[in-house]
Design a protein that fits this description.
It contains 2 helices and 6 strands; from the N terminus they run ββββαββα. It is mainly beta. The longest helix has 10 residues.
Length: about 130
């Protein structure tokens, strides 16, 4: 049986990324994403918001922590991951989150951190490239 696990989301960060490192030294960043949906119900426009937890690994996690902040718009390409665990008092918990393969930084939000996005800062503009 075939399976496919791919998620594409565009939204705004609900909090600044939290950067941590595993015991083996791998970078891990977590942040929340708000994805809005507008729809019409009869003659009235309504809006609903879906809040999604995002996890990013490696150098991309470090870039997210350095250049992203609450309110900043991003495009996420990733996969769903389901986790289950038991609390200290024996309660079973579970969580569905998105593990990002790529995080594309979009337009600057009013509350964004200063500095250029890492994918543009090291590359000079080339005017002589034919199209």
């Amino acid at each position: 049986m075939a399976s496919f696990n791919k998620v594409l989301l565009m939204g705004n960060l609900t909090r600044d990324p939290e950067l941590r490192f595993t015991s083996s030294g791998s970078a891990l960043a977590k942040f929340g994403l708000a994805v809005n949906r507008k729809y019409k119900a009869g003659d009235e426009w309504k809006e609903e918001v879906c809040f999604v937890d995002i996890t990013v690994w490696g150098k991309q996690a470090e870039n997210c922590a350095e250049y992203l902040s609450k309110g900043r718009p991003v495009f996420i390409d990733g996969r769903l991951q389901f986790s289950t665990w038991e609390t200290e008092d024996g309660q079973k918990r579970n969580k569905l989150e998105v593990v990002a393969n790529t995080v594309q930084f979009l337009g600057q939000s009013g509350g964004g951190k200063s500095g250029m996005a890492p994918d543009t800062e090291d590359y000079p503009v080339k005017d002589d490239i034919p199209f």
